[in-house]
Specification:
The protein is of the alpha+beta class and 1384 residues long. The chain has 29 helices and 54 strands. The strands form 20 sheets. Strands 39-40-44-42-43-41 form a 6-stranded antiparallel β-sheet, covered by helices on one side. The radius of gyration is 33 Å and the shape is globular. The two termini are 65 Å apart.
């Protein structure tokens, strides 16, 4: 509601758009609008505060003892930043649904994760809710209305089929009698069915899915009743909705013992009062109000009598009142949170709640994936019934107020505040990133909070909408809540309420919107100021304190169970539960569907002691051959973000300095073994700090800070080694090597958080190797600097001794002596049944140790030849490592198992499953196995001339990943090959960063079968996924940081800094586009030895004024944007200046600011004034005039496509069009603002998909990306249209002469083959095109196209040999046969 530019205010054009202008006359048109949108402006001023008119309070409906909530009239907040609800519905349909029932239009919504597939009532309810609500929100003239009406009916048919399949047994609705289908079927479906909707898998209903399905049916029916041409199926759905309301009340609610309250159960079969259990998120007061009203108004049409609805009214009101008493009893007053599960008791006229119950594997007292839905269900009540929902206001207010404290500058805090005095004791991790948490939580912001300023609340809901809009629908549960929260935040549900007649037509409260192209206004009831809550309840929470845990509680903290015979087993890093027994890898039917993932079954509270395995004295053997050298490229991406920033985030989130009088820094673990400092975590810290230190130039402003962190991490590691000297290190036989022989160099695996004593004994070679990598990279880099720190020698000595100790104590030769393999630690593991973990093998570290011992033995070793004596054994270890990888890896997909047994068979190795050294499933590609990928990628990056085996190992996985990514989205599963050792993949691999991060690192190495451009797309998409994750827990967070420095090139720079790669002198030729002259500059570039090229994404423009060289020899230039001088940088328009686009640093000069940009991975340009330097990581597409500022893009000159711009139909005073003068779909182009025609054309040249531009003299630039190009134009003053013809572009496909004839009348017909039922998919291909004309144009370009079938957005190109021989009546479709004109 406000504008950045001085003198500008926000004026409304229509319900879809408002813009910043200096002045506005109602009814005028603007020449700056696109021609077809040059319609009158209303000029209503947005951002002023209208004075509300009082609305009479309706008389409360009489009801039994529970009072009716006091009516309240309220504003509603909406935001345009959330995006389009229709677009989200279509995305939901495409991603999650199909029509699996032969001969039926029934559409099924498929679940994923949790219960792993199938159709659940929850998913089908979401589908009905979304389609029904959006249908109700649309005007009758909306172009997509018929499509959405069809989807609504299809969703209903799917729901009806589920009810029909529930008639057999187990529905628990027999006592009340089936109400649907004339008494044939229960109205509340079983909770789970197979994917084909052929049979039920899980019996009993779930009231959340039932309520959502009811909401969708009721909104659709009520809206369609008000239209001029309702569909033929309206009466059937209307009857089914009525009967479902009745069945729900009869079968899924239960009165209290006094009769004064009525509460929703956990389904028709279970739940209710007291120990029977409750789930707050199952309660849907808006649906109960709709049922109450619908049964009253429709009983004469659908009921057993004309007064039936009146008889239910008092009981519905009692249910609503009880619902809000339950909410008040379970909600935390200070922050508005509710628990996943609770027990609710009637105490007189009030209710009391306590914990100690869970109906699934989700923690009862957690604000988690179930509890969050309660927020949306109450927000829906506020939106649909603002005059009744006073209690909704009281419920939503504290959470909205709490959210105000969790947002800053568009960013959301990773945690919510816990109030120890109420029922909620934890919050699901990553609440603001997981859309099943964030989506419903954000919806509280539609209701004004008493303590939040209106302008501030608009900022909050805009930030919430932006977060929701950034997420794709690529899985079931989060994806569903992306869609539902979109239609809640953007006002679609308010429009649905209006369409369904739930809101008064005279109410005029206007929703605030952001000034975006998609901003909308919502009309609601008139605002009032003070919400009134009429029902007072008390809650008496109980906690276990220091006692052992109940069966329904998380036992990670207590490590013991109250129930006899039960023990505490770990499920994953976030949950452990009390069970009698547990099989690693199994799922539990008691877990909530979305959490039905494998249990690790690690026993919490006991300390298993591995049996020590003596390490034999190393046996001399002939050296194994060194792997064949290979010279290859390396891929990196700027989308992964800054490694330094990730290190600082890691330090802040996971570390402290707990030792009094020491600078030692400890990295604290969490999850899994539940706290403490483990060698793995400390190794990650040393790796990150040491590698980043090695990657920096000596002049880097953060170098001293990172050098200090590196030393502090080393001190923490040294202390762990010192504390391991007592017993149990299993390094006594070889002798302690560190601290002059005082300490073992391989620390115990676990210590307390204060680094005061060891908790778990024995070393872990993965942590040892990572710590070694960090020490060695830091030492090798610091030795090459002009002023090394005083501690360098100590760390250098410790690194040398650790290499020696690792080889002596953590590796073991084979019986023949021809192989040497890494053990599972100094105390156990090795060959055969002793067990192996592929992810413990780190060939890059073994190469560094080999070389370091050879070059530093005279300084740190026992003799000047000591390193030479170890060389052959290190080489043998490396060769054996890759033989082990070859034996365990799946050839087809590149995956390896968590655990295996490895046997020597002659000169080869053989592997088999049947071993696990922990609770993780042995044959799974899981949280341990994934790390093997990164360890091999590190080998490729640090030793490209030796890592031929690394290339062979990484290639199949990179090739496999190509099939799992599309448009920046990653598939939720990896393909399993049943012929190898891996038989499963850890769930949600692409979302869990301990899986995705290391897996993605395979993409740094070029894959033989993947095109270079495609591999760059993949690594860019990987970097984007990694960059979207915060470091808010230990294990995933660590891999966010490690994968960042791998994908963004920091590890390559570290290898250069450590002297592992050589530098060469190259000659770079840069063309200055503005003057078409060539400048040849000879620069010394650090192209790594072994890398013929370093691939980086090229995203921005080019002309040149200054050349610079990145640390990897990639020559880029700074170019002025819109002249550069007196210009401030902007995003897509002159007003687009989000603080998330840039980082502000201090620089004494423009040259220094340029240096900062050149050194920042992903820098797209800079803005400079005085000493303020903005480093932009978003493409700079526009500027804003501002005195004293300079705006420059930082670009790759080679990214400017060569070609010419051709005037379309004369060019001037023409607007671009698609297939015809009327074909101007918004999908054809993207808009940038504030640039000259030359700048607009230059932006086009930077994009591989740009086919031309349309420019307006006012600065509007349309970048056209239509696949068939710009084929037409239309006269419009002040515009120009230009077609780009690339020098290397293939000629456009020829267009056949001929005409299209309507088949059986054309309109309302779908094409068929030999008869109306002949519709094989092989007859046609499908393209997404916006118009019939564009569909027909595409057909003309294909020699095999016989005709087209078109429906909005969908084009079928028919290639059937016999052509289109028939058609079938189908509303919304048209069928056209192409008759080619053959030249005579």
């Amino acid at each position: 509601g406000c504008c950045q530019d001085s003198g500008f205010r926000c004026f409304e054009k229509n319900e879809f758009w408002a813009g910043c202008r200096e002045s506005c006359q109602p009814g005028e048109t603007s020449p700056l609008d696109d021609p077809e949108y040059q319609t009158p402006w209303t000029c209503t001023l947005i951002g002023s505060t209208p004075t509300p008119s009082p609305t009479p309070t309706p008389t409360p409906t009489p009801s039994p003892p529970s009072p009716t909530p006091t009516p309240v009239n309220g504003d509603v907040f909406v935001t345009g930043s959330a995006g389009s609800g229709k677009a989200r519905l279509f995305e939901f349909i495409d991603a999650l649904t199909d029509q699996p029932v032969a001969g039926s239009a029934a559409r099924a919504v498929h679940s994923s994760g949790g219960a792993a597939g199938g159709v659940v009532s929850e998913s089908q309810g979401y589908g009905l809710l979304l389609s029904g609500a959006l249908l109700a929100s649309l005007d009758e003239g909306d172009q997509d209305r018929q499509r959405i009406m069809d989807y609504t009916h299809q969703m209903f048919l799917g729901w009806r089929r589920m009810c029909e399949l529930s008639a057999g047994s187990g529905s628990c609705q027999d006592d009340e009698g089936f109400q649907c289908g004339g008494g044939q079927y229960p109205c509340l479906a079983h909770w789970k069915f197979d994917d084909s909707l052929a049979y039920a898998i899980g019996s009993g209903s779930a009231p959340d899915g039932d309520a959502d399905a009811l909401a969708g049916m009721l909104l659709a029916v009520l809206a369609l009743e008000r239209t001029s041409s309702p569909p033929s199926w309206l009466e059937e759905v209307g009857q089914w909705a009525y009967d479902t309301c009745k069945q729900f009340h009869m079968s899924s609610t239960v009165p209290s013992s006094s009769g004064n309250h009525r509460i929703v159960k956990l389904g028709a079969c279970w739940g209710g009062w007291g120990s029977n259990g409750q789930n707050p998120s199952y309660h849907a007061p808006a649906v109960y109000r709709m049922c109450r009203n619908y049964m009253k108004t429709h009983d004469s049409m659908f009921g057993g009598s004309a007064q039936e609805g009146d008889g239910y009214e008092a009981e519905w009101n009692k249910l609503i009142a009880t619902t809000y008493k339950m909410f008040e009893a379970t909600q935390c007053d200070s922050n508005g949170l509710v628990p996943n599960w609770a027990k609710v008791f009637e105490e007189g006229s009030a209710l009391r709640a306590e914990t100690g119950f869970s109906g699934s594997g989700t923690p009862g007292p957690e604000y988690g994936a179930e509890a969050s839905r309660a927020i949306w269900r109450v927000a829906l009540d506020y939106l649909l019934f603002p005059n009744e929902a006073g209690d909704a206001v009281g419920f939503l207010d504290p959470l909205a107020s709490h959210l105000e404290t969790r947002e800053s500058g568009g960013n959301w805090a990773e945690s919510l505040t816990i109030d120890g005095s109420c029922l909620v004791n934890s919050v699901h991790s990553s609440w603001s990133q997981n859309m099943f948490m964030a989506g419903p939580t954000f919806t509280c912001l539609v209701c004004p909070a008493n303590s939040v300023d209106a302008g501030r609340q608009q900022e909050l809901i805009d930030a919430a909408g932006t977060r929701v809009a950034s997420k794709a629908i690529d899985d079931y549960y989060s994806g569903s809540w992306v869609a539902i929260s979109t239609i809640t935040l953007n006002g679609d549900l308010v429009r649905a309420a209006q369409g369904a007649g739930l809101l008064s037509a005279t109410a005029t409260g206007t929703a605030s919107t952001t000034a975006t192209a998609t901003a909308t206004t919502a009309t609601t009831a008139t605002p009032a100021t003070t919400p009134t809550t009429t029902i007072a309840t008390t809650a008496s929470p109980t906690t276990t304190g220091g006692q052992c845990s109940l069966a329904s509680e998380d036992c990670r903290t207590t490590g013991c169970c109250q129930d006899s015979g039960f023990r505490c087993f770990e499920k994953n890093e976030f949950w452990a539960g009390c069970r009698e027994s547990c099989q690693p890898g199994e799922t539990s039917p008691l877990d909530d569907p979305e959490y039905q993932t494998p249990w690790t079954c690690t026993l919490i509270g006991s300390t298993p002691t591995p049996s020590p395995t003596p390490t034999p004295t190393p046996t001399p053997s002939p050296p194994s051959p060194t792997p064949t050298p290979v010279n290859g490229d390396v891929f990196v991406t700027g989308s992964a973000g800054s490694g330094k920033a990730r290190l600082f985030e890691f330090i802040d989130a996971l570390t402290d300095q707990p030792v009094a009088g020491s600078a030692a820094r400890a990295v604290h673990s969490s999850g899994g073994a539940a706290g403490g400092v483990v060698s793995e975590s400390q190794g990650y810290g040393l790796l990150l700090s040491g590698a980043l230190l090695a990657s920096l130039d000596e002049g880097d402003q953060d170098r001293q800070r990172i050098m200090d962190y590196t030393h502090q991490m080393f001190l923490g590691w040294r202390r762990m080694c010192e504390l391991s000297a007592g017993s149990g290190s299993c390094q006594d036989d070889e002798g302690f090597q560190c601290g002059g022989g005082q300490y073992p160099c391989l620390a115990h695996w676990k210590f307390d958080d204060s680094l005061a004593y060891a908790i778990g004994s024995g070393s872990a070679p993965d942590g040892d190797a990572d710590a070694l990598a960090g020490m060695l990279l830091a030492v090798l880099a610091l030795e090459r600097t002009s002023s090394p720190p005083s501690w360098l020698e100590e760390v250098g000595q410790w690194a040398y001794d650790t290499c020696k100790q690792f080889h002596m104590s953590s590796t073991v030769p084979s019986s023949s002596g021809n192989h040497r393999i890494v053990k599972l630690g100094a105390c156990w593991g090795g060959w055969g049944s002793n067990g192996q973990n592929p992810s413990y093998h780190a060939p890059a570290v073994y190469r560094m140790c080999r070389n370091y011992m050879k070059t530093h033995d005279s300084m740190f070793g026992g003799s000047a030849q000591e390193g030479d004596g170890y060389e052959a054994e290190w080489n043998k270890l490396i060769a054996t490592t890759y033989k082990m990888f070859e034996a365990t890896q799946c050839d087809s997909n590149g995956l390896v198992p968590n655990w295996a047994k490895v046997f020597e068979e002659g000169s080869a190795l053989r592997a088999e499953t049947g071993f696990s050294g922990s609770g993780t499933p042995g044959p799974e590609y899981g949280a341990e196995a994934s790390r093997a990928i990164w360890r091999v990628a590190l080998d490729y990056l640090l030793f490209p001339n030796e890592a031929g085996d690394a290339v062979g190992f990484l290639d199949p996985l990179a090739s496999h990943l190509e099939t799992r990514e599309s448009g920046g989205n990653w598939a939720e599963s990896l393909t399993i090959d049943g012929s190898c050792l891996v038989n499963s993949v850890h769930s949600s691999w692409s979302q869990n960063m301990f899986m995705a991060g290391p897996t993605f690192t395979s993409l740094v190495c070029p894959a033989n079968s993947v095109d270079a451009g495609r591999q760059q797309e993949l690594i860019d998409a990987a970097g984007t996924r990694v960059a979207s994750k915060a470091i808010n827990d230990y294990y995933s967070g660590s891999w966010v940081a490690i994968s960042t420095i791998t994908l963004n090139g920091d590890l390559v720079r570290a290898a250069q800094g450590a002297g592992l790669l050589s530098t060469t002198t190259t000659t770079t030729s840069t063309t200055t586009a503005a003057t078409t002259t060539t400048t040849t500059t000879t620069t010394t570039t650090t192209t790594p030895m072994g890398y013929s090229r370093v691939f980086e994404p090229t995203t921005t423009t080019t002309t040149t004024t200054t050349t610079t060289t990145t640390p990897m020899g990639y020559s880029r230039v700074f170019e002025p944007v819109d002249g550069g001088s007196d210009r401030a940088c902007r995003g897509s328009s002159s007003s687009d200046n989000s603080a998330s686009y840039y980082t502000v640093v201090s620089a004494p000069s423009l040259a220094a600011c340029k240096d900062q940009c050149a050194g920042l991975s992903g820098c797209a340009g800079l803005e400079f004034k005085g000493t303020r330097c903005e480093l932009w990581t978003r493409s700079i597409l526009a500027t804003h005039p501002l005195s004293g500022y300079t705006c420059l893009r930082y670009v790759d000159p080679t990214s400017l496509r060569q070609g010419t711009f051709q005037a379309v139909d004369g060019g001037e005073n023409r607007v671009c069009r698609g297939a015809s003068a009327s074909d101007n779909s918004e999908s054809y182009f993207e808009v940038a603002q504030g640039m000259a025609v030359s700048g607009c054309q230059r932006l086009c040249q930077l994009r591989a998909d740009c086919v031309g531009v349309e420019h307006h003299e006012g600065g509007r630039c349309e970048l056209w990306t239509r696949a068939l190009g710009i084929q037409a134009s239309k006269a419009a003053s002040g515009y120009s249209c230009w077609r780009f013809v690339s020098d290397d572009a293939p000629p456009p496909p020829p267009s056949r002469d001929g005409s299209f004839e309507a088949v059986d009348g054309g309109e309302g017909r779908a094409c068929r083959g030999s008869g109306p039922s002949d519709n094989l998919q092989s007859y046609y291909s499908v393209a997404g095109l916006p118009s019939l004309q564009s569909c027909q144009d595409l057909c003309r370009t294909s020699d095999t196209c016989k005709g087209v079938e078109f429906s909005p957005g969908r084009c079928e190109l028919w290639t059937r040999t016999g052509g289109i021989g028939s058609s079938k009546a189908l509303e919304g479709y048209s069928c056209w046969r192409f008759v080619e004109q053959v030249a005579s």
